[in-house]
Specification:
This protein has 453 residues and is mostly helical. Helices cover 79% and strands 1% of the residues. The chain has helices spanning 3-38, 44-71, 75-81, 94-103, 107-135, 152-171, 178-202, 207-236, 244-248, 251-282, 286-310, 316-337, 345-377, 383-406, 412-432, 442-452; strands at 140-142, 145-147. Helix 12 packs antiparallel against helix 15. The two termini are 41 Å apart.
């Protein structure tokens, strides 16, 4: 099996990992509140539990990222983190996975790969509720454990993650990065050329010329060997001469981290708001909300694949700008039509559907473009740690978003006004930094200088 086939199987396994994370969210979340009530836990324990999950991912993401950057492996990290998946620790392995994807994709195809991976998670969110149809029928004992509709989702997900361990062992490889493969090929070609050139003088009769020629090649080989040793040493320690301030306190990086925070903050705030809103205005029950979430999942999946196609046609920063305009339009629509609903039931429902549609339409544009751009403006050798920092910023947003929206479900003007203010801020930042939101041209400059010298 060649590296191309291994890379394809590895990417499929990564897609399965993200799909399981979506299934987990869709299976666990609807039942966790009732389970806490059985334990007679106070209401604030629901928020604490969800925040604790995000906090675990926030703390472990950079640690797993450093681990993957130093070891240049992700398979062992995934196998280890999956043992603690339900506790939220496993979500921290996402930084290592995104670092791996960055090293094993070309810049022009990266946004499309990221979009497909994110669509896999949305597919998990879409099919996840179907598992609850049979899990709610569980009512038996497994040794000392009681298995019912509240405890069965956790046991079910535990079995799925155990199955995934075997799939990772069989179908996941730490394939060499694309750049490394190119370097190896070039090195082999150079070695063959040197070998051929050394053999030619030895066939001649002039011994002096042969000796001089071989001495020159020995110097070249020593220089090449020392250069390779230096490169290998840097690979073993990617954080040598690494500076957090130089890596992250740059204009383009700050803009993208801000986009990550605002996107997830607004998304989780809306997720917190939408269920009480549908109950208050439209009397939606479990069935109505399930249908709504299913339709939302379909829209987001279609959106991710549209962005996958669009990213091959236009630059990432264009996709980001379009997404921010759509999200701002959606927030303005919600401020006008949802804070004080007008008209009858049909008009209110139509206004709500349009608002949700616009919010979800902009999500894939912003999510994919900012992840792709972030991978291009940060160093590849420390990509795991950088992605860990990015995901930690997102984790902080998923903690604060529900807390912000949870206390303001009766004050939509304040809640949506803050969300719109954040969107306007990041849009202005994007416009001012638009020229810097692109892949650095360091490599091209180096090539031109080499050809000139």
């Amino acid at each position: 099996m060649d590296n191309h086939q291994r890379r394809t199987l590895t990417f499929l396994t990564i897609g399965l990992i993200f799909m399981l994370s979506g299934i987990e969210y869709a299976v666990i979340l609807p039942t966790i509140w009732r389970y806490l009530q059985i334990l007679e836990a106070p209401p604030y324990f629901l928020g604490l539990g969800l925040s604790a999950f995000s906090l675990s991912a926030l703390l472990t993401g950079p640690l797993f990222g450093v681990w993957s950057d130093r070891s240049q492996t992700t398979k062992s990290i995934i196998l280890f983190s999956n043992l603690f998946e339900i506790a939220g620790v496993g979500a921290g392995a996402g930084s290592s996975i995104f670092g791996f994807l960055t090293r094993n994709t070309l810049p022009e195809e990266r946004a499309g790969i990221f979009a497909a991976i994110m669509a896999c998670r949305q597919a998990g969110l879409l099919v996840g509720p179907a598992f609850n149809l049979f899990l709610r029928l569980c009512d038996f004992k497994l040794g000392p454990f009681v298995v019912n509709k509240y405890t069965s989702p956790g046991i079910f997900m535990c079995l799925l993650w155990m199955l995934l361990q075997f799939i990772v062992l069989a179908a996941y490889w730490d394939v060499p990065p694309i750049s490394s493969e190119g370097a190896v090929i070039v090195l082999e070609l150079k070695q063959e050329e040197v070998k051929e050139e050394e053999e030619v003088p030895l066939m001649g009769s002039d011994e002096e010329v042969a000796r001089t020629y071989r001495a020159i090649n020995s110097d070249q080989l020593e220089t090449s060997t020392s250069s390779e040793s230096q490169t290998a040493h840097e690979a073993l320690n990617p954080f040598k001469n690494f500076s957090i301030s130089e890596a992250f306190l740059r204009e383009e990086v700050v803009v993208l981290l801000t986009a990550q925070f605002i996107t997830l903050f607004n998304q989780t705030a809306l997720e917190t708001m939408v269920t009480p809103l549908t109950q208050r205005y439209f009397s939606f029950g479990e069935l109505g909300n399930s249908v709504m979430y299913s339709l939302c999942g379909v829209e987001v999946i279609v959106g991710f694949f549209f962005v996958r196609w669009l990213s091959s046609k236009v630059a990432d920063r264009v996709v980001l700008a379009v997404g921010l305009v759509i999200c701002s339009t959606a927030c303005i629509w919600c401020l006008i039509f949802l804070c004080k609903p007008r008209g009858g039931y049909e008009w209110q429902l139509s206004a709500f559907i349009v608002g949700v549609f616009l919010q979800l339409l902009g999500l894939p544009f912003v999510a994919v473009s900012q992840v792709s751009l972030f991978s291009k403006v940060t160093a590849e050798k420390t990509q795991g740690f950088s992605q860990g920092v990015r995901r930690s910023v997102g984790g902080l947003a998923t903690i604060l978003g529900p807390l912000w929206a949870g206390g303001l479900t009766n004050n939509l003007y304040i809640m949506l006004g803050m969300m719109l203010a954040l969107l306007v801020m990041i849009t202005v930042m994007t416009v001012l930094s638009y020229e810097r939101l692109a892949e650095p041209r360091v490599v091209q400059c180096a090539q031109s200088s080499d050809s000139g010298g």
